[in-house]
UniProtKB/TrEMBL annotation:
Alphabetic keyword roster: Amino-acid biosynthesis, Aminotransferase, Branched-chain amino acid biosynthesis, Pyridoxal phosphate, Transferase
The protein's required cofactors: pyridoxal 5'-phosphate
Species classification: Bacteria, Pseudomonadati, Pseudomonadota, Alphaproteobacteria, Rhodobacterales
GO molecular function, one term: branched-chain-amino-acid transaminase activity
Name listed for the protein in its UniProt record: Probable branched-chain-amino-acid aminotransferase
GO biological process terms, semicolon-separated: amino acid biosynthetic process; branched-chain amino acid biosynthetic process
Role: Acts on leucine, isoleucine and valine.
Tree of life domain: Bacteria
Record flagged with keyword Amino-acid biosynthesis: yes
InterPro entries named among the record's database cross-references: Aminotrans_IV (IPR001544), Aminotrans_IV_CS (IPR018300), Aminotransferase-like (IPR036038), BCAT-like_C (IPR043132), BCAT-like_N (IPR043131), Class-IV_PLP-Dep_Aminotrnsfr (IPR050571)
Amino acid sequence: RIVYVNGDYVPEDEAKVSIFDRGFLMADGVYEVTSVLGGKLIDFDGHAKRLERSLTELDMAMPMSADDLLAIHRELVAKNGIDEGMIYLQVTRGAPGDRDFAFPPEDTPLTVVLFTHNKPGLADSPVAKQGIKVISIEDIRWGRRDIKTVQLLYPSMGKMMAKKAGVDDAWMVEDGAVTEGTSNNAYIVKNGTIITRQLSTDILHGITRAAVLRFAAEAQMKVEERPFTIEEAQNADEAFITSASTFVMPVVEVDGATVGTGRPGPVAARLREIYLEESRNAAI
Ligand code: PLP
């Protein structure tokens, strides 16, 4: 695999970053994951805008223009022959040459790394035809989940708790309501209404979420943006998650209780279909 590191395209085993990099020492950095379908990027503009927002919230500047970032994404897609998959982009506050809690001087170059994941068959996933199972866990993350930081230890532990419980993922719960999945936004469907938590600093503002809610509105589906409980999810007609890497993925079990029929529901299936079609058409 050819990867990008600070201006260079190199084979992955030749890519080097300093041990003093603040991403490595302090999780001081942000990331984006953009999916690729038919060799083209899905919602690149949304990801570039959210990257800029994450950086700004942490007093970092865009390391280059969105157009230059787009060119790097495209170059990696071409160099690695990606038809379906993802591109991971990470920007950290650079490597000031020692460890210090205070931020380094502003002219310290940011570290920019990108690499590809080749995932043939990503869109035609058999998992989407079965649906996934989730457990609930307490949400003990920090209070700025709207910033897409590389501080992913708790979501990673959540994923392990799910694995140990024999399921696919965990939904995090705070003050009695679901915030989001370990790496996705969470939804239920009740009596034809799609319910998902409203945007705030409590959750990541999913790029897939924004697109799916737009398509739902265009298809005259009813959407309510509010918190919901695990009990509501267990008694819902349907549940699903969204993210750049799973698109729209049905959820058929929550904490051991079957949701709806236990099979992917019509709303989730329809939204997945619309999302994939519209996204392919708009891909760049
Ligand atoms: N919520 C969390 C915590 C995430 O990590 C992610 C994606 O990684 C999402 C939601 C979904 O965001 P997007 O649709 O932009 O991939």
